[in-house]
Amino acid sequence: MEKISLREIILGTGGALLKGSAALYLPDIYTDTRLLKKGKTFLTLKGPHFNGNNFLAEAVQKGADGLICEKEPALEILPKVSFVIIVKDGLIALQQIAHLYRRKFTIPIVAVTGSNGKTTTKEMIGSILSRRFCTLVTAGNLNNQVGLPLTLLRLRKKHQAAVLELGTSALGEIDTLARIASPTIGVITCIGHSHLQNLKNIDTVLQAKMELLGNLAAAGTAVLNNDDPGLQKKLHQVEGKVITFGVKNKAEVWAKKVTINALKNKIVFILGKGRQQRRVTLHAIGEHNVYNALAAASVGFALGLPLSAIVKGLAVFKAVAGRMRMVKKKGLTILDDSYNANPDSMKAALNTLNNFGRAGRKIAVLGDMLELGLESNKKHREIGKIIGQLGLDMIYTIGPQSQLLAQAALATGIDQEKIHCFSSGEEQLLVTDLKAKVHHGDVVLIKASHGLHLEKVVVSLLNN
Q: Which of the following CATH numbers is that of domain 105-315: 3.30.365.10, 3.40.1190.10, 3.40.50.300, 3.40.47.10?
């Protein structure tokens, strides 16, 4: 970490210094004793199944030089550390510290949210900005109340820009994350049927995502999808600068002449802004990735990058594991979209599979879409009806809700022999059956919510 004193931490969190000098500088923060490094700070968090305050002795044993915790450590621990700060709530303290630390940097901070495409768009933005700036990018999926603060605390003097992903499952969460990050650019990829268990309906999803724009720093820029009906309705309400992107409707950043060659894992299109336009080759599949690329390009334009640098940044982008990444092995093509799923992303993935050439059979391995609340049964049946219309060669389902999907597909008249249903916990049975049936040239889509852990199916197929 760059220099931030314990005095600043105490003032910013309302904590109490139990041991040490307020003039000391805070070493890097860790919240997991398994990852803790010698000489660093251990900050305690609590969850449904753990309490970091019970691991103070272990943290010190592993070399922690300082503690930020909710209760006084045992007396025998105090001589072994340089400082101890007592706070009321470890999570709130972590967020407050991250916000204090972020304020030490005047660099562009890009925050990305949306129902689909957040991680891919974040990676595309990082690929573009890295053409000119030393850029910090959210690692993996650290987009929540803990992950975002920890990402901000990775900022260093060398960084000239940062790209952060903001996730949510309830109203107010993006508001909290955006207040911590104070982004200068806010990107909303799209609005869809995600996290309906808490957000109830698509209007509330839109409300949750729009929380980002209310927290943009002064003179900030909003980057919005003008082909998304919900976002289009909100455009007139957005204060400050807006850059729109789209394919169908008029937008500041646009794409035309889109050609998708799924077998070659390639999308070619003309990217334009105003009178500028240039051919882009994107090593990805799925029409949705054109929108992700346009969102990323919009950020590049907002930060003054030339079109040539934006095109090069998109050209070197590589798909992220679990997010419509195409992998080929021994004549089998796997569409690894196993990280997450909601009704909109499921439809997009199925369309991507359906648009493949006829080199081999098209097979879908689908698991439950979680966090849909009262809409779950209806949405799974809707996907089943779509499957029945596509004419796929084989469908594998796993999980209780996916049984409804299979039933709806059968009701459309699809052949019973094409559908293979498995219960939760039967992943290995599914893999064994699938391995026995796949042929050279087949294309296999694997998609479900993260809780189904279908990435294990991907690994098993690749290790075949």
A: 3.40.1190.10
Q: How many helices (H) and strands (E) does the chain have?
A: 16, 22
Written as six digits, the tokens of 249 are 């409707």
Whole-number Å distance between alpha carbons of 295 and 285: 16
SS3 (DSSP) at 238:
coil
Per DSSP, 5 falls in state B
SS3 content of the chain, % helix, strand, coil (to 5): 40, 25, 40
pTM (predicted TM-score)? 0.94
Q: Residues 338-352: what's their mean pLDDT?
A: 94
Largest CA distance in the chain: 74
Q: Can you read off the two tokens belonging to residue 229?
A: 């009906």
Query: Tokens 């305690």 identify what position?
Result: 44
Q: What is the mean pLDDT of the chain?
A: 95
| Tokens read off for 161 | 């820009």
Under a CB-based contact definition with an 8 Å cutoff, are residues 455 and 339 in contact? yes
CB 447 within 8 A of CB 363: no
| Domain boundaries along the sequence of the chain | 6-88, 105-315, 325-462
Mean predicted confidence (pLDDT) in 133-157? 95
The rounded distance, in Å, linking the Cα atoms of 188 and 209 is 7
Do the Cβ atoms of 67 and 59 come closer than 8 Å?
Answer: yes
Closest CA to 268 of 336, 130, 316, 278: 278
Structure tokens given for 101: 């630390």
